Amino acid sequence: MIYYLGDKVSVIDEKTRLLKNKNKSWEYGYNEVLDTVIISKDGTLGEVYCISGINIGLPQQPDKKEIINYDKTTKNQKWEREEIPNGLTSENWDSKKFEQYIDRQFKWRNEGIWIYLNGKPVYLTGTYWHFLQWFREGAKYPSLRIIQSELMIFWEACKADNRCYGMQYVKNRRFGASALGNNDILNMGSIHEDKILGMISKKGTDAKKIFNRLVRAFKRYPPFFKPETDGTNTPKTELVFTEQTKKRKQGEAVEEGQGLDTSISWHNTEINAMDGEEIFMSLIDEAGKYPKEVPFDEYWEIVKTSHRLGSEIAGKAFVVSTVNAMKKGGAGFKSVWDDGDPLKRNNNGETISGLYRIFIAAKYCIQGYFDEYGFSVVDDPEEPFINDKGRKVSIGAVTYLKNELDGKKDPQKQYEFLRQFPNSERDAFRDEANDCAFNLVHLSEQIEHNDEELENNERGNNEVERGNFYWKDGIQDTEVLWMPDPVNGRFWIAKDYHPPAEYRNKREKKMIHGVLAWAPVNGNMGCLGVDPYNRSKTVDNRGSMGSIHLATRFHIGPFPNDAFILEYIDRPKKVELFFEDVIMASVYFSMPFLPELSNEKFLQYVKDRGYRHFVLNNPFKLWKDLSDTEQEYGGVPPQDAKIGEYQFYAVEAYIQDHIGVARDESKRTIGEMGYMPFTRTLIQWKDVDPTKRTKYDAYISSSLALLGNQRRIKIEVEEPKPITIPFKRYDNSGAISKAM
Predict the structure, then answer these.
(1) How far is CA 524 from the centre of its chain?
(2) 3-class SS letters over 192-254
(3) Which of 37, 105, 481, 503 could cross-link with 499 by S-S, CB 3.0 to 4.6 Å?
């Protein structure tokens, strides 16, 4: 049974399943008819569970007397290592004398075992049984953990599935994931002929340490599993198996020699490590912490080919890691993770990365919260329990983690705690709190809110409408209309905040500084920020995006105050299309825009089209202090360090006051979630380095929109006129009043 990681599913009728069980005709591997990966090696199929999007078929639970611990009381049904018999540890051991014992060890190594633990039947794969029984890196053999066992069931499915290159696991701290991978490297390497197995980690020295631990475990291997090596028992870089084990030499009905001409080696952390070799199995450790020169997404694309022979997947990768900050190796790991969704496959039936991803919440993995049988104690028990260290514990892991989190009053410390002990995939991929220029806690809260509440998909979310603007009847300078286009739309607009008809397409001709041009009439309500790009196409067919944002200001009108209601991050095939998009957006909302003065062609286009007064001037300079170019075109120069500082502080203040959960009642109700439905912009705010901001187009345009709203608004007020009294006035100085 699976207790933590999966849900039981029905994929076949009982009659057919039992008939094939009787004939032991179920085959190990992916069954296309059932869409299930069968990991049973005894020809049977038992319960099927869906784990991380993969249907996995376990072997049929055997009769009670074939399950280990069946003859013990429930309380005493625990995992116990089977000690090797006396006389079997010597060099000249007699295989005939111990034949039954040895055969059982090989059978369990291949098929796995069933065991009762506190009255519950548990299936352990052969790989996990090997880990518990024969893999000792340190002072003692590992303890059984049900959660580890279930991860190994998932790993067995990855090995069995011919569509899969392996597993990508976001590991929990102190889980033992590297040891589990190391265990199977030794297990697989010592039973297969003519194979190459390798390991790599965040540094060459780390890979060497893992290799040294494997060598120590190999030295403790039982003689019937232990193949001969090519020389020293303490190799420094490569362990080479040259001959079969004595069991395989002396056995009569045995297949080809086991472990012959197979090598296990560690590699330095280089972009071409293991490239060009035919890898049978790899342990790729701490892949979320690789150095900048070896981004994991690029490395995986290279080494992935080493796990393939022609069109056939010939090797499996055991990829495990905690996740560094995105700028410190985490981004490449997350990129591969995003491509490992089993629900998104190419026409060959493989995920985009080729790997199957799996996440396990910290609540299942906390040291001290395993009972003496190996089960995770997640919720508070009815009575105190004895954990696997012999200590009495009265709460479960969920309460423990909550107490730890609540004890950290600083939101940034709470954020970092969730990153260290993730309860969700999102927690695991949080950036380090001190690795963001802005308030990462607020940004992460808003991004998570958008992901969870706004029904995000590739076409936007339920708060945002995607589409394009166009001129009515195709005639410029008439009326701008909106056309929804959920597939190819360049604009993303908050659904509820299109301008009402009485505010839309409003403009007037004005003479300002000797220039007669169109001017907007809703300038007191908000501003657009624009970051233009220069060419329709660069030499390498790449280039920055054109970016537009509309931010409102405090006003009396139809829009929310201090909110972003439009986002545009796109690169039309012709740069003139972008120029026209800017004009149409500004006319539609009848609001001005503040552009970066980095593309005079763009601003010349705007001027020639008669919209110079839609372009704001530098809001921090008087007209007389502007340069000739600034006076002619408007906008702010990108080289101005002061403007860069103002942009940073504007975004910083906006995030603090309006993004994420409110903690200060001066701006919003405490506990209220901010309104910012444009997740792409939030991600750029999270990732931007303000000192190297050129590739963060959304950061530039959104900050310019905020700066544009900081300008002083001149409100035109008519001169007061004398009030005319429509009645006659009288002189009352005499005895009789006289009309004046």
Answers:
(1) 40
(2) CCCCEEEEECCCHHHHHHHHHHHHHHHHCCCCCCCCEECCCCCCCCEEEEEECCHHHHHCCCC
(3) 503
List beta partners, residue 8.
Answer: 49
Q: Which residue has the higher pLDDT, 49 or 687?
A: 49
Contact 315, 282 (CB under 8 A): yes
Higher pLDDT, 717 or 341: 341
Residue 663 structure tokens: 């903690």
Strand pairing partners for 127? none
Q: What is the per-residue pLDDT for 543?
A: 58
Mean pLDDT calculated for residue range 546-554: 95
Q: What tokens does 218 get? A: 């190999």
* pLDDT, tens digit, 9 for 90 and up, residues 355-398: 999 999 999 999 999 999 999 999 999 999 999 888 999 999 99
What are the backbone dihedrals phi and psi of residue 709, each rounded to the nearest 5 degrees, phi first? -80, -10
Counting residues of the chain whose pLDDT is more than 90, the rounded percentage is 72
Q: Where are the beta strands (DSSP E) in 58-174?
A: 113-117, 120-124, 166-170
Asked if residues 307 and 314 have their Cβ atoms less than 8 Å apart, the reply is yes
| Ranges assigned E (strand) in 420-463 | none
- Determine contact, residues 611/622, Cβ cutoff 8 Å: no
470 strand-pairing partners: 481
Give the Cα separation of 113 and 67 in Å (integer).
8
Establish how many alpha carbons lie within 13 A of residue 287's alpha carbon, considering only the half-sphere containing its beta carbon. Answer: 29
> CA-CA distance, 465 to 492, in Å (whole number)?
6
Look at 13-27, 413-427, 505-519 and tell me which has the smallest mean pLDDT: 413-427
**Residue of 581, 489, 565, 493 lying closest to 532 (CA atoms):** 581
How far CA 701 is from CA of 513, 596, 686, 697, in Å, comes to: 26, 8, 15, 6
